[in-house]
Amino acid sequence: VNNVEDRVYAAMAAAADLAADEIRTAPPLRLPSESRARSRRQGPPRRWIRWAAPLTAAGVVAALAVALVIIKDLPNGGVVPAGPSTSAAGPGGIPRYYVTIDAGTGQRGAPNTLLVGDSLTGKTIATIPSPAHSPFQGVTAAADDRTFVVYDVTESATSAGTGSWFKLHLAPGTANPADLTPLPIKPVPTPDNKLVPQYGVFSMALSGSAQELAVGEVPSAAGGVDVKVFSLATGQLLHDWSTNDPSIAVSFDWLISLSRPPALSWIDGDQALALTTMSNEASDNKLETVRTLNVNAPNGDLRTASRAIWTTPTADQSGALTCGILKLSRMSPMVSADGKTVSCATVSQPGGTPPGGNKSPLDWAVTFSTYDLAAGTTAARQGTIAYQVTRQEPGPAGSSGGGGLVWVSPSGGTLIGAWGIGAGTSASDVPLYVGVISKGKFTPLRLPAGFTWSDLAYMAW
Amino acid sequence: VDILDTNAAPRSDPRPRADEGVTALYAAHAVGLIRLAFVMLADRGAAEDVVQDAFLGLYRNWDRLHDPASALPYLRSSVLNGCRAALRTQARRDRKHRATAALDDWRPLESAEAAVLLAEEHQEVLAAVRRLPDRQRETLMLRFYLGLSPDETARVMGISTGTVKSALSRAITALGRTLKEEK
After folding, report:
1. A379: part of which helix (H) or strand (E)?
2. Which of B1, B52, B121 has the CB atom closest to A418's CB atom?
3. Of A156, A214, A59, whose CA–CA distance to B23 is shortest?
4. DSSP β-bridge partners for residue A435
């Protein structure tokens, strides 16, 4: 041990003593299930908040209870009838084919599977296993209902990896219904510790024409946001904007999940991008903002090349789980391709937490709303309710509510949404409804048996 | 859309549920981790927030934590990363508010109390430590503050033991040079 090490040891020991004097206890741990009751100094926990089970973490009792369920609005009883197999579109005019990722074990580097489904018949038409140590981690769709881009990360248990893109072309009814080919886009580095990622791809969007791929990326551990546009044909970087402005930020949570939130989408005939970000202010008053970015704008500063078209607080005082909690949940608002509407899902407890806490019936509401952007920047809570389901659930075993958007039609008039309300404090306890929302009605879709919230997280239509 | 835990696989092992496991870990390690973050951030509130975030991250990823023994290294790693992000935020705020580019992005124990309680000798060393690159600084903290072995440090930082040793060596060399120059 040399003199320098001695001095470092001594300084560290002195700092440790001071810290020990200063900090003798820790504040109470605030787990997500305590979200409504606890202090909101730092905001609610990020990922589980939509399942706002008003229970203390240690108080969750997995006891069976007789459900006193008051159903104010149920989804239509039957599923959308299957039409003739020659139909080009899916039920209700949605794209017929979708791609999702079976997450497998979720273990780092473990393989998973692409699953191609037919929303008209409810059948799986193709499955494609990922290469060993290269799980699929994201998927995005073009407007032709045939072309998708898949993001794949090669990784090991301990070292950094690289992310690559593949084109998935569907040819239903043929001997080769799904063909996966590498894209010539230069691979990107991915973090070496997925549990605490610091940089990487947070979102991606394939243009409606399937000619260009937009990629949202945190470029380094120092933060910032980059938006890049690549040519699918050549892999060439066509456009590149970046910013370190703290008002245009993304959450590390977006990098943790294997799924990518739909923070990017193409609008205005592929002439612009909609980008959802949040402010990075160290307070509860984070703002979530949808910006438009003209792809013909000069490369360079993302802030000056884009403009905000919709802003909402990330959470309201009542604790309702609004579309404005992107940081917390990836329950992203989705902008229609015509650029005229933004839609989102909100999970709330209209009656608040009753005095009896988890022993009392709880009201839950999942609301799908659409906001008109025609007049420019629009505050939250002025949208039109596209569909709302409310239920009352008993509390002895806890209850949960969740919801999210999966797809929005080019005009914003039709949505694919998912919701679940039920007894229990995790998603696996609660029935999942995925369906088409149009003209105030929710029509469940045919999905493969065993389809879960996890599958939904990776879905592209 | 991402509903709940996207990667949870059915489990058959009898380990604790997330809330139970994380609560127990918090009881055992929160104070120590807050002290670590406090030494790095010089801000008790920020330190508590960083540690809270680390435990929430663990809670969210509980089903992906296949080896319970890796929970503490994960928490330490998460705290280090949280501190790094907080320090950058502090640095940006300080640059903005004080209009000075000379501030370092690490400010351990710069409070008035610390200035009184920490001997000048120690402050000088810590000031030199804070000017080290991220990896060297964090390696030093794990080895000298927490007393972790090179293997444990490597596990927390997600790098090889050899890299830890070389980072530590470079850090000591750089510190020796800095402290000598300041004499």
Report:
1. none
2. B1
3. A59
4. A417, A444
Which pair of tokens denotes residue B167? 């980072």
Cα separation values, B35 from A313, B129, B154, Å: 33, 17, 21
Helix axes B44-60, B71-98, angle to 10 degrees: 140
Other CB atoms within 10 Å distance of the CB of residue A215 = 26
* SS3 label, residue A191: coil
Q: Which residues of B touch A252 (CB under 8 A)?
A: 85
Which residues, other chains included, contact B14 with Cβ-Cβ below 8 Å and sequence gap of 6+?
Answer: none
Residue for token digits 């979530």? A288
Overall average pLDDT of the B149-157 stretch: 82
- Contact (Cβ atoms closer than 8 angstroms) between residue A410 and residue A336: yes
User: How many Cα atoms are found within 13 Å in the side-chain-facing hemisphere of B60?
Assistant: 30
Residue whose pair of structure tokens reads 């294997």 in the numeric block: A258
Judged by CB atoms closer than 8 Å, whether chains meet at A193 and B77 is answered as yes
Interface of B with A in 42-81 (CB under 8 A): 44, 47-49, 51-53, 55-57, 59-61, 63-64, 66, 74, 77-78, 81
| Cross-chain residue pair A456–B1, CB shorter than 8 Å | yes
What confidence category does residue B101 fall into, taking pLDDT thresholds of 50, 70 and 90? very low
CB contact under 8 A, B3 and A282: no
Contact between residue B83 and residue B91 where contact means Cβ atoms under 8 Å apart: no
Residue ranges of B 81-120 with Cβ closer than 8 A to chain A: 81, 84-85, 88-89, 92, 108-109, 113-114, 117-119
A202 Cβ contact partners less than 8 Å away, ≥ 6 residues apart = A216, A217, A218, A250, A254, A255, A260, A261, A263
Q: How many CA atoms lie within 13 A of A95 on its CB side?
A: 24
Return the residue of A nearest to B37 by Cα.
A19
Q: What are phi and psi of A156, to 5 degrees?
A: -120, 180
Does the beta-carbon distance from B59 to A32 stay under 8 Å?
yes
The ipTM value here is: 0.74
- State both tokens at B164: 């830890």
Residue A42 has pLDDT above 50, yes or no: no
pTM (predicted TM-score): 0.60
Task: Please report, in angstroms and rounded to a whole number, the separation of the first and last CA atoms in chain B.
Answer: 58
In 3-state terms, what secondary structure has residue A202?
Answer: strand
Q: What pLDDT, on the 0 to 100 scale, is given for residue A214? A: 97
Average pLDDT value for residue range B60-75: 75
